[in-house]
Amino acid sequence: AGALQQSADIAMYCAKRASKNTLRFFVPGMVEPLRERLQLENALRGALERGELMVAYQPIFEAGTQDTGMVRVGCEALLRWRHPELGQISPARFIPIAEDTGMIISIGTWVLRQACGQIRKWGESGSCGRIAVNVSSLQFTSHDFVGIVAEALQSEGVEGTNLTIEITESVLMTDKDACARKVRELQALGVSISIDDFGTGYSCLGCLQNIPIDTLKIDGSFVKELGIKPAAAALIGGIVSLAHNLGMRVVAECIENEEQLQAVRLAGCDQVQGYLLGLPVVPAL
């Protein structure tokens, strides 16, 4: 009876992870992924205190032209986890765990403070530029998020004009009025708001009309399909046109080759980032 109940619990967990209104029959293959997830979850709980988490920064450039070249205008802060036994763990594996367990709140606050500290350090060395920080929906919708941002800026003595908060489209779909109010409060601090992974299926065009977003970051899947699917260039061009008509900037990410770079330039993207232009780097202490 105990084994039967345990198997049913595992199947139920897998069903919840899949989607709503579905079911799963238990199969032995479910056990190992669940065991691995629990191992990562337990390891992640102390990762911050043990100094295993770090922040890497990937440069963002003005798109420029082939003749004028590109100028670095900022960076995106990217969380990394280096486990002493498991090695480098992909964010795609541990970020969902952090969100499901609520650990993303404390980890996200730490990343925000690290980014503000890096803004200060680079400013002291004469290097300037905006840092973009990804924020989960759980973080953004917490009641004290604006206060956390203000505290991070104040504690490091940096201006909000050097910080961009990146949120996903799904955040806009929750409580539109509350979201708009929070965006305006952040912008009153000088902070810019960017929609990350725009165009991935949660698009709420009406939200863009009512919520004062500063930047749209085109999802990398569109960029990767340039030169492969003819519709990709048309979709990027449509997003750029929409954004510019609404007074927003557009960033194209995941630029990995010259063909993609030239295509997003031709489409009118304002800024670009990707492995072709610069890898994420953890600054020296």
Sheet bearing the most strands, described? 8 strands, mixed, barrel
Averaging pLDDT over every residue, what do you get? 91
Low-confidence stretches: none
- Separate helix tally: 12
Structural overview:
The chain is of the alpha/beta class. The chain is built from twelve helices and nine strands. The chain has helices spanning 2-18, 31-44, 91-101, 104-124, 137-140, 145-156, 169-172, 176-188, 205-210, 220-224, 230-245, 258-267; strands at 53-62, 72-83, 87-89, 130-134, 163-168, 192-198, 215-218, 249-252, 271-272. The chain has an eight-stranded mixed β-barrel. Helix 9 (205-210) links the parallel strand 6 and strand 7. Helix 4 runs parallel beside helix 6. The radius of gyration is 20 Å and the shape is globular.
Concise overview:
With 285 residues, this protein is α/β, with parallel strands linked by helices. It contains twelve helices and nine strands. The longest helix is centred in the middle third of the chain and has 21 residues, at 104-124.
Secondary-structure topology with pairs:
Layout: H1 2-18, H2 31-44, E1 53-62, E2 72-83, E3 87-89, H3 91-101, H4 104-124, E4 130-134, H5 137-140, H6 145-156, E5 163-168, H7 169-172, H8 176-188, E6 192-198, H9 205-210, E7 215-218, H10 220-224, H11 230-245, E8 249-252, H12 258-267, E9 271-272
Parallel strand pairs: 2-4, 4-5, 5-6, 6-7, 7-8, 8-9
Antiparallel strand pairs: 1-2, 1-9, 2-3
Helix pairs in contact: 2-3, 4-6
